[in-house]
């Protein structure tokens, strides 16, 4: 019967192909057992009509002109496939073969699309059989790493995300100041930005050269979304509690218009972390105009205003008292929770994109984008008073316990007592959770400000603020333009060319948020009288108004500018059993800083500084060898340079224009070799990789005690400083990331599969980089510069921090033919470290400031003991998920649920940092040996058990 249907379908279609003399492209859809898949929707991008697979899984597109095409295949309960193919002239019929759709565990699950050529394993058809391998779906390793391990802050290969590329509608979304991507700019718009095309790790991409942590590319064309409405409601106990969204797509009209609009909201009165809230919106408008089969223009507008609070890291002492959900950033004001750390922003994005099929072999995509708006982060600040944070070391029980028991101190309740009594009072308050001890006391801050005497300050009369809230603001204006050119020489050779331009301007400043009952705050360094006697201490000398009120700028104000041009040619071709992709890059950037404040310590604080220019060059290559139709050997290699981001180039931009010493382009040399198996019953990738990085510059900022700083003024007067906020700079940092990856998916029976992952890496520092530091307490040093060298930091062979270097996962998924599924997995992490602080691993750490020689009696074993790497505990987790979908006529309903960390493991540390408050061996060692160190590392812990329930309704 199936053969008869197939013949009927074939002979029905032949006349159209013959009479119109155009190309017909066709294929058959099958599941993992080789059975036909019917009623799957197939969307040819740029074509106004979708097609649907018939009862034998057959679909076709007729009258296609020569060119490059992309199709999206979707069916409920199956993974969505994105595939590309080329049509050449004089090609009457193009057979894409049998396309396998694998069952989807969730609607976010994506697999590796493989097109079986239909011939024997040793036959020709190399190009078609590797289309799925070279296309942008995630393989089994990447899928598990993203959806299961990523929740626990696992980074494949230990690679910093700043070395990747994220593109939206043809342009880069990477910020020039720090290299990060603010995904919150389109937060909540999951149904719009889902299913990007991904070139994993350092493999070449058709859209950009990228780095070594993947190229993620997404187009949001209004006609690509399913016609009609889609409503989604989610419930969770994570950062937010609720998510509601509604999307509508008109489909392509006969006049060539398509519209898609979407709105979303995510919110929580209190998230899983104490004292946090979440309130975010998302909106999308997409308009598409198809002028002809060769010309389409799209307009996209995206906006996602948000307001949310953040949670604090803490020392182990604090977590032992209050648990992993403790957050020190909030307290009660008039009986209501109030947080000092609130992020809010709105940076809308407008994009115009032109798609032009120049001729049968060439096409050109052109994009123009503009983004603007402000991002603000509030924090509590103070002048000439003690840090009011409940986790400040002088407010914890361990501080009182470190003192002479009979010493007279001011206790937690503000009453003078002995340190022994103060310890007992503080300990009782922390153990019982007394909010007057464990949280910010807003009423006390207001009271202190309002009790200030009225005084005359710089011509203004009123009460000066001791405590106040400020916003750190980024006011961005970003222009992007890019082109993506494709020329198909024939059906096996393609030339690509990407050219992009970015103009980045960001004014960054601090403004007064709330005076907490006072009349104004002084725009003046509160430590100037001690650290810089005789100097004005003004953050902006010469300004008329030193007394600042709500909305006024204070402390710092400067502008970052950067212009960058990139050219990225590429060539893809097939020869014999090889598919090859070669990509190159050449780029030029110019960066500058313009100071708008005249800082009292630095002559180069105000005005536009010099332009710093960098050239980038690089090559990437991928070679796929087809052993047979289902076994492949894949090599990816990359060698390229990357210019420093603005915050790495300018080491202390808030107050001066100084740049990092000996700064150079970072150089990356990355290689991997994979063996890939892809059959209906087994999908597997085994990879070995080696990534070397050199010339990297890192910048950190923190408070340190015990650093002998000397500042010299214009008259030669010297001031000694022992405690200060420090900017630490490491230059010529060399790193090595090497390891092995294994991902597999085995189908035990047609409805049950086992899947797993193993990642074993070793991420280390390869050298002892030079270390410098700068401090506003010292200003300009004796060398005439705003920074001074402390020599080499001996961190060679230390492990890099930030991610587990061992990760394992094993799980199953069961897919019932009646459209319900269930799955679970076990995940294990080990070899997770904190990044080593470089300052305490320099010779300065062991040198007596008086004799300039090592401390008497210090042995190598003593030093190794106190400076051993901070290894974090290993942990394992169980996750589970399930779901069910229904198709009722034209309606589609999906309900799914997932639970992470079922056993409620709260011992896993997701990240943290070493505190460098004691920069000399004697005080550092003494503090380390205490029962509760005053300056122990600060951590972020996993949040414990969490769930996510999702209901989707399409109509």
Automatic annotation (TrEMBL):
InterPro entries: Beta-barrel_TonB_sf, CarboxyPept-like_regulatory. It is found in: Cell outer membrane. Coiled coil: none annotated. Keywords: Carboxypeptidase, Cell outer membrane, Hydrolase, Membrane, Protease, Signal. One of its GO terms (cellular component) is cell outer membrane. The keyword Signal applies. Pfam families: CarboxypepD_reg. It comes from the Bacteria. GO terms for molecular function: carboxypeptidase activity. This is Carboxypeptidase regulatory-like domain-containing protein. It comes from Chryseobacterium polytrichastri.
